[in-house]
Write a structure and sequence with these properties.
With 543 residues, the protein is mainly beta. Helix content is 4%, strand content 43%.
């Protein structure tokens, strides 16, 4: 009778022990050395301590004693605590888990060179066995499944269950809560694509309740550069393993490429690791937001071809745009932010700086397609939707050594009459030399001098003849002569010169190096455009 009672007590004690000490995580295929970095995590689920020196661990073929991590170290596993059983060679040969295992977590070693007979297999599923040394009673036994990448452990989902999953964390979760163990309260945010392309549709997000209890309210928010663009408080009973789709209006996002932090939060949430997503969003650019403003297709020998783009919209990131022509394009791969009215230049090589050292925002790329005399330039989005285009042929304009400039960005730039060659060699990154503000005031055409009496005596007062002109044309051909009171031509200031339509001409009242004599003179000007020719005669006096 006493023997039977002793056996019953032993069976109860063993069953209690089996349920108290469990295998909780297995790293059978570490990212580091297989000789040093395999480990097994144990957990004491009970209220009493356990001396692990009384146990062995290994595989179905061989088990080894558990020993202290170092001389003087304990093998006592406290209640409700983790223990990491490690390769005996780990302390001298590896540091893989040093910044991962919490300091207060017990570490122990196996009394052999490897777990089991040859170490845990990475090609054939094996059983991890934990048993009592004194009687060989198996306390826990787990067969792992090989379906994860190196560096990801096999984790028990719940202390009181036998469901196992691949770890979410690289190098596993040794000494702390398993990554696959659900929290009581836990919602997660999911967005299917990153980056996201938006045209007119909203951004669709999904909120999952992966916790063990219902969630009754949460908030979704969107931030860009630490500024809150959108917040939405949602009251909806979300049961465990349930989900809900939330649409965020696309109107809140900036055009082209930008970066956002999308978050879903709940006051009860215990896990904030899965609540936010850093998202790259490309929002479709509207017509006339980015335009061709100038380009060089016939450079001089010491320069190169280039294209200038002007931002007509709000601040925009032009990353992911395609630049080129119908035969070939290249993608802008870096973040380039353009403010409203800012210019951006793409050049085929660095020789552009020989003539235009002042350019601020520029990409040098030999991928820029050559610009021919007959071409079709285009700016496109990464879904190949055209943002701007310009087609021309070789009968357009004689531009040898000059860039071709848009007269005014507000004009229809697919109309060739909106373009002409630059007065200078080009103005990449600056306002165009032929830029003209248009108004319908025909009387606005002006040619005048600031001072009718000029005294070129270097006293700082009216030393120069200042001529101002402003015409409602993109450019003019200007002729200016100086006549004396007798009608004799004294000097030629300009003869049929290609000139911007708005300019100031300053003359020092000299012919060669000699100042003209005191007396009355006349400025004669002839201003030609494509359609008109106007003459101006303005008297002035040199004293």
């Amino acid at each position: 009778m006493r023997t039977l009672l002793t056996m019953v007590i032993m069976i109860i004690w063993i069953d209690n022990l089996k349920s108290q000490l469990i295998i909780n995580e297995i790293m059978f295929d570490p990212a580091g050395s297989e000789y040093h970095d395999e480990f097994v995590e144990l957990y004491n689920t009970g209220a009493t301590e356990i001396n692990l020196s009384e146990y062995e661990i290994g595989d179905q073929d061989e088990t080894d004693l558990i020993t202290p991590y170092q001389d003087g170290y304990s093998t006592i596993l406290q209640p409700y605590s983790y223990c990491i059983v490690m390769d005996s060679s780990y302390p001298q040969n590896s540091s893989t888990y040093e910044n991962l295992i919490p300091e207060n977590v017990l570490r122990v070693l196996i009394a052999d060179g490897s777990f089991g007979k040859y170490g845990f297999s990475n090609s054939i599923s094996e059983s991890v066995v934990l048993k009592k040394s004194s009687n060989g009673v198996i306390i826990d036994q787990v067969s792992y499944v090989i379906d994860q990448n190196p560096g990801y452990s096999e984790e028990r989902v719940s202390f009181n269950g036998d469901i196992w999953k691949n770890s979410i964390f690289f190098n596993g979760s040794p000494g702390f809560r398993n990554s696959v163990t659900p929290f009581q309260n836990d919602i997660s945010l999911n967005i299917s694509n990153n980056p996201v392309f938006l045209s007119t549709e909203p951004l669709n997000t999904t909120i999952h309740n992966i916790g063990l209890t219902s969630c009754s309210s949460f908030q979704i928010s969107v931030l860009c550069d630490n500024s809150v663009l959108y917040e939405n408080d949602i009251t909806n009973e979300l049961f465990p393993e349930d989900s809900i789709s939330i649409s965020i209006p696309q109107s809140i996002f900036n055009y082209a490429t930008d970066y956002y932090l999308i978050s879903a939060t709940s006051d009860e949430d215990e896990n904030l690791q899965n609540n936010s997503i850093e998202l790259e969003i490309f929002k479709q650019i509207e017509d006339n937001h980015l335009i061709f403003n100038e380009f060089m297709k016939s450079p001089e020998d010491d320069s190169c071809e280039w294209i200038e783009i002007l931002n007509m919209s709000e601040k925009i990131n032009i990353k992911n745009l395609l630049i080129g022509d119908k035969s070939s394009t290249f993608t802008i791969e870096q973040d380039i932010i353009l403010d409203h009215g800012e210019y951006f230049v793409i050049s085929e090589d660095s020789s552009i700086f020989e003539n235009y050292w002042f350019i601020d925002k520029i990409i040098i790329s030999n991928k820029l397609p050559p610009i021919s005399d007959k071409d079709h330039l285009l700016i496109a989005q990464f879904n190949n939707q055209i943002v701007d285009s310009l087609a021309f042929d070789n009968n357009w304009v004689d531009d040898d050594g000059h860039s071709i400039e848009l007269i005014n960005p507000e004009l229809e730039n697919d109309n060739l009459r909106s373009w002409t060659k630059s007065v200078d060699k080009g103005t990449p990154g600056k306002i165009n030399s032929v830029y003209t503000e248009y108004n319908n005031d025909v009387d606005g055409n002006k040619f005048e001098i600031e001072y009718k009496v000029v005294s070129p005596n270097n006293d700082g007062k009216n030393d120069f003849l200042v001529i101002n002109y402003n015409f409602n044309e993109p450019f003019i051909y200007l002729t200016m002569f100086v006549f004396n009171i007798k009608g004799q031509k004294i000097l030629e200031l300009a003869k049929n010169e290609y000139s911007p339509s708005k300019n100031t001409y300053i003359w020092n009242c000299e012919k060669g190096t000699k100042r003209l004599k005191t007396g009355a003179y006349i400025i004669y000007a002839e201003v030609k455009t494509n359609d008109t020719c106007k003459e101006y005669k303005i008297p002035f006096y040199i004293k």
